[in-house]
Design brief:
The protein contains three helices and five strands. It has 141 residues and is of the alpha+beta class. The chain has a single domain, classed as Hotdog Thioesterase (Thiol Ester Dehydrase, Chain A, Roll). Strands 1-3-4-5-2 form a five-stranded antiparallel beta sheet.
Length: 141
């Protein structure tokens, strides 16, 4: 990344909660509220959006660490907005503070860490990896 990313660089992402974003979509016995994995995905996308304007060529950022609290529930139809703000740079790792809000309150917060990679080199490296053979599950009892 030839361009310097200023502390405070921001990115956002928004979405309206649909059934597919709820816990019920994962399991029918769970309540129809916005799932933590979907909130984290929105936060990671906001973090990507904060850093991507500073990438050059085929550079992208990829997530390397997540520490997030999901603090309040939101239902189908809620509009969720995630925001990411660059807090610090640790070597090649960018640490961003992330928040998610619905129309009423903050629903989540935390930090994510991302690293810059060349998309071409990253994909080439993945192609060279041998797939791990899957083993059938055996009950150990």
């Amino acid at each position: 990344m030839a361009k310097s990313v200023p502390v405070g660089a921001r990115g956002e992402m928004e979405q309206t909660v649909e059934f597919k974003h709820t816990l019920t979509a994962y399991h029918p016995k769970l309540p129809p509220v916005y799932s933590t994995p979907d909130m984290i995905r929105l936060m990671e996308t906001a973090a990507f959006n904060a850093l991507q304007p500073y990438c050059e060529g085929d550079e992208i950022t990829v997530g390397t660490a997540i520490n997030v609290e999901h603090r309040a529930a939101s239902g189908v139809g809620a509009r969720i907005k995630a925001e990411a703000v660059l807090e610090s740079l640790r070597g090649r790792f960018y640490v961003l503070q992330v928040t998610a809000r619905d129309e009423v309150r903050e629903i989540g917060r935390g930090r994510v860490t991302r690293a810059v990679v060349s998309a071409g080199k990253f994909l080439e490296k993945m192609k060279r990896k041998r797939p791990v053979p899957s083993r059938p599950y055996r009950d150990q009892t």
